[in-house]
Amino acid sequence: MTLHGLLASTALLMLAACSRSGDDAVIVKQPEIVVETPAPQVAQTVETPPPPEAVVQDEPAPPAPTPAPAPAPTPAAEPVTLKYLMGDVKPGSDPLFKAVPGKLATRAGMYGHKDAVAALEKMADAAATDGVDLKVVSAFRSFNDQKTIWNNKWTGATLVEGGKLPNTVPDPKKRALKILEFSSMPGTSRHHWGTDFDLNDLTNTYFASGKGKKIHDWLTAHGADYGFCQVYSPKGADRPNGYNEERWHWSYIPVASAYLAQYPTVMGYDHLKGFEGAAAAKDIDVITNYVQGINPACKR
Ligand SMILES: [Zn+2]
Question: Residue 17: pLDDT above 90?
Fold first, then answer.
């Protein structure tokens, strides 16, 4: 009995020890769990908000700039602008074009970009009050108009400086450069855009004295008030390349500057084709040297 009682009391002691140690363990571990659990929760709670905030800040930022610039170039840039850049339009039926009023035109069938014609009318009215009579000698010219002029010179059908160019200038690049002294390459003329007008006369000497000088002086002083600029200013340090001076050629810059900006990418050399000597265009870099070779004061 004694042994049994000893065994029994030992077992009870062990149970008590186990349960106590078990309780102790639970009691000790519980606070650990309580301490550990809120800690990561707090840490998670603190860490979680910044990422969403950062995401929220990032998300509105990219969408805002992305759609804003995208719609602007897209409608003006692609196929529509290409045909306007290269003069592949029928101005009599194109809604972007308007006839030059009869009082300003030197012949029937002259057209320009509607905004340019409207500005020209205002400028001409203002000039008239100052005793200056503006007349349009040339306005919109189509790609095909320019192609006829160019090809006839290239082939010799039209004499240049009294000779036929295939004989006098057989080299293609030199021949193109010779024609460029007087005429634009098809697809590169600002007259395709309807933004540019030749006024009153086609010689610089006309504008050097008398009535012509009065006209040119008035345009130089007041043209910018109506958006017009003489893009082919005298050649010099500030305009080393491009066409020679043309005192008669005035460009409506608010529209023309947008056309010029898009020209290298929308038009580019891919579309300068379909006329005699077209291969010379890239050789000469006609876009850089002629299309973009304008009076820096006219650039906006
Ligand atoms: Zn012109």
Answer: no
